[in-house]
Amino acid sequence: MAAAAAARGPAQNDPFRIAVIVTLWLLLGLFVLYPLACLLVRAFSDDGGFTLDPIISALGNPTHLRALRNSLVLATLVGILGTAAGFLFAYTVERTDMSRGAKRLAGSGPRDDGIPYFHSARRSKRHPHVFRAGRGAGAGLDRRVDDRSHALAQ
Questions:
Q1: What is the spatial distance between Cα 17 and Cα 81, in angstroms, rounded to a whole number?
Q2: What is the DSSP letter of 47?
Q3: Helix orientation angle between 62-95 and 53-60, rounded to the nearest 10 degrees
Q4: Residue 101 neighbours by CB distance under 10 Å
Q5: In 10 A of CB 146, how many CB atoms?
Q6: Which tens digits make up the pLDDT trace of 6-29?
């Protein structure tokens, strides 16, 4: 077990890191899970017993149904539009020849603080069986693939 812990590296056994993770989980439980559990208990109980009467009466109210429908429509539109916007930004950054400042503005350009960023690997035009890394961490590293995985990728 000690060998497995040493193989993970010193960052895995850092007491400060463990304390931060435990604290975040406790805060999540206190501010999200506990109120949600209290809400569910109140929604499905009446006079100390389990019942569906509050839910059925809420779904019978046209005002509540309209609010539910509006919430579902809003959630669906936010998901669709957010995914479309993210795709357009990612496609623009990856497929166009943007300037360095524009890439930094889009969030995928070179950073001055020393934190590496990663681009997806690109196939070499001259040698399609070689993937070339982007300009970020690991730049200049090539990875060859065998013919079977190359055929699957096309």
A1: 36
A2: T
A3: 80
A4: 9
A5: 8
A6: 555 556 788 999 999 999 999 999
Residues in CB range of 141: below 8 A, 6 or more apart: 133
Name the helix (H) or strand (E) containing 53: helix 53-60
Contact 101, 114 (CB under 8 A): no
pLDDT given for residue 74 in this prediction: 98
Domain limits, the chain: 11-55, 79-110, 120-154
Alpha carbon of 30 to those of 7, 38, 149: distances in Å? 34, 11, 48
Biggest distance spanned by C-alpha atoms of the chain: 75
End-to-end CA distance of the chain: give it in Å, rounded. Answer: 43
Q: What token pair was written down for 146?
A: 């065998």
Is the pTM higher than 0.85? The answer reads no
In sequence order, the β-bridge partners of residue 142 are 132
How far is Cα 128 from Cα 5, in angstroms, rounded to an integer?
40
Q: Tell me the two tokens of residue 62.
A: 């046209």
Distance CA 71, CA 12 (A): 41
